[in-house]
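Lecture 7 notes: from sequence to structure.
We start with the chain below.
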Amino acid sequence: MLKTIQILLLIPCLYIRKLLLKFGAESRKLDFLLTQLQLRAIRSNHPRRLIYLLNTNALLAPILNYIRVSHDVIDAQIDENFKNASCSFNALKNTHCVFIGDSHVEFLGRCRASKNDDTYNHTTSIWLGPKTLLGYRNQPDMHEKAREVKKLIEVPLRSAQKHGKHVRIFWCMGTIDIRFSIYELMLRGAVSSETGAIDLIEEAVEFIIGTHLTEISASYRDIDIGFGYVCCTNILENGEQPSTIKELNNIKQTAAFPTFGSALQRDRWMTEINLRIQKICRKYDASFLEHPMSHPLNKRLDLSLDGIHLTNPVEIMRS
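Predicted structure tokens for the same chain:
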């Protein structure tokens, strides 16, 4: 009942934020407070989490008819599959997993310790937006970014400490880079080859694991914290192959998920990047979270209803 009340309180808060953005009254402080509220109440600040919880709650589902015109058919099927997942993930009972990064964190954070774990007490998904790894790494003040993330993880870390749990923080970025950044860098002449672009991604991953996560968790030395990195994946379709920067920019502005290069080409990039991430993880004694979407020979369409994310709850819990 408490969880239902928390969800209901979130709805007007998020609509107030939406209205403020519409009228150009953006407030970083308000945005941060609402993000903290989402992480406390529903364990994720991704927009899909609230819709998912409304859609899978018999008492709250009718609200969907009032707050949005329709619920995408594929999204609804994904939500239904997670709702009906009956397998448990016993390894989570003494561990709290924090996933930080792009939209993939929302689905990874839906794994439950048991079918009755409706409050997702063992996972937290911190969505930083549709970020590329290279874009995130090249922001001017990474120390400020570390402080922001440090504040966001405080709630799940202190909760884990209170219940005697281990904490595993997994960074999840790089898939969007595969989707369009590598192709774009080569077209713009920023790198001389795909190897040069992959080198930049490797350097960014090493910074995240070797420096950024350490800085983020520095204030929590009294908690058992381990680091990890989630494997990169590839969108399951051929992309556009623009030959000019103008054409590339037009696609980026109009496409919902701008994708460049052939699927085969991007699979090759994905495989090489994941090999390098694994090597970095071994160097820093971090975990490499691998799942079937990162293997080109697997039947990935069976694992991903939207062709982008791993949406098979059983495979997520196995990972």
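Points to note: Residues 1-84 form one domain. The chain has a mean pLDDT of 87.
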